Fold 5-formyltetrahydrofolate cyclo-ligase.
Amino acid sequence: MENNKKELRTKYKSLRKQLSENDIEEISLTITNQLLKLDIWDKNYFHVFLPIKEQQEIDTELILHLLSGKDKNILISKSDFDSCEMTHFLLTDNTKIKKNQYNIPEPVDGIEVPSNKIEVVFIPLLAFDKKGHRVGYGKGFYDKFLRECQTGTIKIGLSFFEAEELIEDVHEGDMQLDYCVTPKNIYAF
């Protein structure tokens, strides 16, 4: 079995399908608790993805509660599938969220914040390896977005599963993670 992105996408999508709603809730809570151990809480601008329920992604609701409890600026994105670019909006009590055609919950509009203000990014992924490379859905949204961030922006992958040894077909344009947090471990790269 090759460890290329295509194979890994298939493998981890099927592993995810086996998780019950209850599993997802429990694992998401464990991951959120793990995040408290990271040295990131002096930062102000945090970017969080809203989960695609249909893809059984990590529930980031708990992370949102954690951040708002710590009085952080929370940013969520809207994706443009023609340009593969993301626009980031401040999450406030008035933010209206609507699912796009891919079931991604997105802000309808709001206060836009440029990528270079963002200090910490929580990143969805299907798989990752011990070098900090990740496999996403393959559209390149996050790679593009992370390149627009400052060099000091902290990139944190969130994963239900542990690291693969190596992803074989990593490209130069693939942005590396600084950390990946799983229910059992915090990987630092």
About this structure: Residues 5-188 form a domain with the Rossmann fold fold (CATH 3.40.50.10420). The first helix runs from residue 5 to 17. Residues 86 and 145 are 7 Å apart (CA to CA). The chain has a mean pLDDT of 95.
